[in-house]
Design goal:
Helices cover 82% and strands 0% of the residues. With 433 residues, the protein is mainly alpha-helical. The protein has one domain: Growth Hormone, Chain: A (Up-down Bundle), CATH 1.20.1250.20. The radius of gyration is 21 Å and the shape is globular.
Length: 433
């Protein structure tokens, strides 16, 4: 049954909803970004007594462990959003993330309280993984259900741009602090600053989200008493639900490698594997992120005009073809060549990450949209994204081959391309119950 779309929300309301979704995603992924960028400092504070590689592997193990809880958060909070509403979960997930990032910012190190510090760090990271699993689905669904069908991908792209803007902010802040304070001060107390900066942002995001109304399509679903009593069961046991869930698991393959290996891991890769200075590593990553953020809205707007499949396929082909030469340019050790390689990767990836969330949301009806999207996307991210930096660090350390990030990008691009080919076009369709 179709949910009526005859009275679209006013433009000001849609803008406010987009801002609320973007702020929340910014905070969620700002935390992931700064943890990745400050991995070396965090390793020193919470995993002392190891050699540099072992400490870094331990730090990235905690990073990867966080992602085990993302599918759980997606399952619990995603189904909750389908049963009681999107807005409630938006507020809850942001609250959990703000509390956990504040605790990390003031957490004593191993030198002060011993292994308790490491345990508490892990506990807060797991809480962040749980909240992020619910945040992504709730924020994307909320914005999608408020957006006109001809602007859906573009509106969602702004939310996704919030996550990459968080990466950019984390990069620039880590770069500035490292240069201004030096490594001893960063290891001692400077690493806390980026975490504490996130707390007021969380409070602002909470105040904005708490004043929003529920989405029009969900309100109508509730008024007509068609809310799913068990969205998880409905997704898993119905033929269409299971088929679309498998698509939601495979289409974002490139997104997982692109976000967590190409960009979160990039500063560490440039510094530890290719021996760039910290400043150059962060500057190159920032340049790539600026290019990516600039390209995303154009890719999204194009998909609103010609469809999701052509843009997603083009991006997958571009990444499969360009990943190896781009990483070869980066590995030359020349700043100009490395910049060219990073820009190539950013442009190729923009066509995927600017569109993929709209394509996934449109696979599912309103009754189970948050559940289906959250389960598929978060399981994919947990398996192929969160463990990416750990896997790359391990493989490069044990083989000496710095080309593994390129191999990973190519494999995931091919997987995404095949999944998109097997999926019908969803662009410009009304959301249905």
């Amino acid at each position: 049954m179709r949910v009526a779309n005859t009275a679209p929300p006013a433009g000001r309301t849609v803008n406010r909803v987009t801002l609320a979704g973007t702020l929340g995603m910014y905070l969620e992924f700002y935390d992931y970004a700064i943890y990745g960028f400050l991995a070396g400092n965090i390793a020193t504070v919470f995993f002392p007594g190891h050699d540099a590689t072992a400490a870094l592997l331990a730090t990235y193990s905690v990073f990867a462990l966080t992602f085990i809880f993302r599918p759980l958060g997606g399952l619990v909070l995603g189904s909750l959003a389908d049963r009681i509403g999107r807005r409630t979960v938006l507020v809850l997930s942001l609250t959990l993330m703000t509390v956990s990032v504040a605790v990390i910012g003031v957490l004593p190190g191993y030198a002060s309280i011993g292994v308790t510090a490491t345990v508490l760090l892990i506990a807060m990271r797991l809480l962040q993984g749980f909240s992020a699993g619910g945040e992504v689905g709730a924020a994307i669904t909320f914005v999608a259900e408020y957006s006109p069908s001809g602007q859906r991908a573009l509106r969602i792209a702004w939310v996704q741009m919030g996550s990459f803007s968080a990466l950019l902010t984390g990069t620039l802040l880590a770069w500035g602090l490292s240069g201004a304070l030096g490594e001893p001060a960063m290891d001692s107390w400077g690493w806390r600053i980026p975490f504490l900066v996130a707390v007021p942002l969380g409070v602002i995001g909470y105040l904005i989200r708490a004043r929003l109304d529920e989405t029009p399509v969900y309100r109508e679903l509730k008024q007509t008493e068609r809310v799913a009593s068990s969205p998880v069961k409905e997704t898993l046991l119905s033929g269409p639900g299971l088929k679309n869930l498998s698509r939601a698991l495979l289409i974002p393959l490139l997104n997982s490698s692109g976000y967590y290996v190409l960009f979160v891991y990039m500063p560490t890769y440039l510094k530890t594997s290719l021996h760039f200075s910290t400043g150059k590593a962060l500057a190159l990553t920032a340049a790539g992120l600026i290019v990516l953020i600039a390209c995303m809205p154009f890719a999204a707007a194009l998909s609103d005009r010609i469809g999701r499949r052509p843009v997603l396929l083009s991006s997958a082909v571009a990444m499969a073809v360009l990943a190896w030469p781009a990483y070869r340019l980066i590995s030359l050790g020349n700043l100009a060549a490395a910049l060219a390689g990073v820009v190539l990767l950013a442009v190729a990836f923009s066509g995927h990450t600017g569109v993929v969330h709209a394509a996934l949301i449109e696979l599912f009806p309103t009754r189970v949209r948050n559940t289906g999207y959250s389960m598929g996307y978060n399981i994919n991210t947990a398996v192929f994204g969160g463990g990416g930096p750990l896997l790359m660090t391990y493989l490069i350390a044990h083989t000496g081959d710095t080309g593994f990030p390129a191999y990973y990008a190519i494999i995931t691009a091919v997987g995404t391309g095949i999944a998109v080919l097997l999926t019908h076009e969803t662009g410009r369709k009304e959301l249905v119950a």
